[in-house]
Amino acid sequence: MNRTAMRASQKDFENSMNQVKLLKKDPGNEVKLKLYALYKQATEGPCNMPKPGVFDLINKAKWDAWNALGSLPKEAARQNYVDLVSSLSPSLESSSQVEPGTDRKSTGFETLVVTSEDGITKITFNRPKKKNAINTEMYHEIMRALKAASKDDSIITVLTGNGDYYSSGNDLTNFTDIPPGGVEEKAENSAVLLREFVGCFIDFPKPLIAVVNGPAVGISVTLLGLFDAVYASDRATFHTPFSHLGQSPEGCSSYTFPKIMSPAKATEMLIFGKKLTAGEACAQGLVTEVFPDSTFQKEVWTRLKAFAKLPPNAVRISKEVIRKREREKLHTVNAEECNVLQGRWLSDECTNAVVNFLSRKSKL
Ligand SMILES: CCCCC/C=C/C(=O)SCCNC(=O)CCNC(=O)[C@H](O)C(C)(C)COP(=O)(O)OP(=O)(O)OC[C@H]1O[C@@H](n2cnc3c(N)ncnc32)[C@H](O)[C@@H]1OP(=O)(O)O
């Protein structure tokens, strides 16, 4: 049916808004800006906001897109929004047809490589050109890979990174992907995603091992407090610059880090952003053992293969006994941290830090 010949009803418009939320494949910034502009035009009419300052890159791009629609009538904007979403539907259909957890052997993942052999499921972050920064797709894929690993016949599950980094943490361009409901909706969606993501680590039923091949930043560090063992190359560093980014700790680190390393050492990392070497992280209990980079892979994998020969039921039951007492507390901490972060993401301190990184004015 030729949709452009029709007038989109309010119901069509609302359906399209819901479809956008279900898109798993990122349609790209240009399309997202167009969607934003059409949504604003359809609901509020021509651009009525003061023009943002030149350094307010994200809001300026949004303002430009909305303003470019001039005096397009609300009904036409609504129709154009519905047509644009419908043109994106092939990616919607194909992504929703993917059966979660059916494809663990290196296929079905855009941002990970997942393999399973010798009793070990290995999940490798695979965005080496971006230092394995975790974008929205990767959050979803890691959750999918963990859920599949929890049910497969492996004994242990390993997370590691491809390239020179373990992971540079949250992909800061995630913050530019603003839904029609604006920054508040973005912050809320991100808090929901983060809570679900960290929840997968809290509930993971088998021993979870990190093989930290290089520097780790932000959430890739905080999550380590939920792992059962952490092996690190002597090239690895551990950095949680939350205050510098106008943010606050996540991954249950506000609870696990003070317990693991003492409250004062946790303060140095989580509040003051002190970067630890692998040796320092090991001395403070965050890392289990450090290996010279030249022999790291060989030594660690020899050890892990031996672990994976242990009787599966005993291993799984022991993990449950250890985690059981803490699980409820960890979920409470996770919920609180996400709640606090939701507010932080709306702060000027956070916005300025992200804009400075994206406009190449700052790096860690
Ligand atoms: C929704 C849940 C939210 C959960 C909350 C999580 C919070 C966190 O994880 S906070 C930590 C966030 N991470 C950062 O702030 C790191 C930012 N990155 C850097 O400071 C640097 O890139 C670096 C120190 C990690 C590496 O520097 P360098 O060796 O000089 O390499 P490049 O900067 O040239 O990086 C290559 C390439 O990768 C892009 N990139 C690296 N990290 C990120 C990142 N975290 N987010 C987005 N993009 C990242 C970098 O921009 C370069 O891209 P191109 O210029 O396009 O090549």
UniProtKB/TrEMBL annotation:
Which reactions are catalysed by this chain?
A: (3Z)-octenoyl-CoA = (2E)-octenoyl-CoA; a (3Z)-enoyl-CoA = a 4-saturated (2E)-enoyl-CoA; (3E)-nonenoyl-CoA = (2E)-nonenoyl-CoA; (3E)-tetradecenoyl-CoA = (2E)-tetradecenoyl-CoA
User: Which InterPro entries does the entry link to?
Assistant: Acyl-CoA-binding_prot_CS, Acyl-CoA-binding_protein, Acyl-CoA-binding_sf, ClpP/crotonase-like_dom_sf, ECH/Chromodomain_protein, Enoyl-CoA_hydra/iso, Enoyl-CoA_hydra_C, FERM/acyl-CoA-bd_prot_sf
UniProt GO cellular component terms: mitochondrion; peroxisomal matrix
Where is each ACB domain found?
Answer: 9-94
Associated pathway: Lipid metabolism; fatty acid beta-oxidation
Recorded hits in Gene3D superfamilies, A to Z, give: 1.20.80.10, 2-enoyl-CoA Hydratase, Chain A, domain 1, Lyase 2-enoyl-coa Hydratase, Chain A, domain 2
Q: What is its EC number?
A: 5.3.3.8
The name of this protein is Enoyl-CoA delta isomerase 2
